[in-house]
User: Fold this.
Amino acid sequence: MSIDLGTPRVISDQEKAVLLASPRGYCAGVDRAVVTVEQALELYGAPIYVRKEIVHNKHVVGDLRSRGAIFVEELDEVPAGATVIFSAHGVSPAVHADAQVRGLKTIDATCPLVTKVHLEAKRFADQDFDILLIGHAGHEEVEGTMGEAPEHIQLVEHPSDVDKVVVRDPKKLVWLSQTTLSVDETMETVNALKARFPELLDPPSDDICYATQNRQLAIKEISAPSDLVIVVGSRNSSNTMRLVDVALEAGAGAAYRVDDASEIEESWLEGVATVSVTSGASVPEELVEAVLGWLAERGYPDARTVTSAEESLVFALPVELRKALKEAGR
Ligand code: 2E4
Ligand code: SF4
Assistant:
């Protein structure tokens, strides 16, 4: 008897299903950051400068660029006297100081939950703790947080980094983290750290934010029965990439990240009955809708939303912008 493993089973339309993770997409910090750029454009007119991508999404950045935002890598690209917005990922105190020296007006769109981690880092550094920051090297959020107390903070990326950690006093040691990590992977690193440093202190509250946790929980719940998980979001979006990791870890047959529907490959659907869809915290909902439309054109039914948490958090706009809007009578 021979079994042909090379031919995928033909899936009838009756067998096809689409599950839509909830929550997904925009979090409170992203909404605030994007609205900040939009309102600044309205109030001051174009151009408005933004240091780094306001959020890590190609479509959001492209849209704001077309409306007059100029995205720069560093402040030396911003003309003196201009207004510059700092991205949702946060900046180090050195960047604030540099803006002042250059005579720039600043609007700080750092997510308040990133600022919370900065304040924790500052407080523990003031108490002369060694701080182990779990996060990804080179990510803007990590650069900003480390800049709060570079002499007190060391970066730990993986459990394999734990052996390299050097501390002054294991009794004065705390771990903090980037806001967008995989919860499960981070706990692996923390467990490895605690095996070496049993007195390691936990952060005063979760640094991995509510939105990151909720999006991971939502996709985790529907990954096991999914033959395919499609995660909408950009490659440089840490929280988006973690959703792919979580889906695979939770038993999805396959999981791919796409910036939009045009990046989905027909071949991914071979033998696929159940497709689950989610999106990162920096992803506009219309991109998800377009993915669902693409699936519908290929015989997949309307999505069934599976909700694992409710969200209602909203952040006030940055204080500098609120003041300026009030002065302008808006
Ligand atoms: C600020 C902090 O950090 P990540 O790469 O996931 O950023 P992204 O812009 O994709 O998501 C919003 C955000 C911003 C998340 N945490
Ligand atoms: Fe803030 Fe969390 Fe959204 Fe990042 S993912 S912007 S920390 S709410």
Summary: The chain has a mean pLDDT of 97. The CA atoms of residues 156 and 164 lie 9 Å apart. The first strand starts at residue 17 and ends at 22.
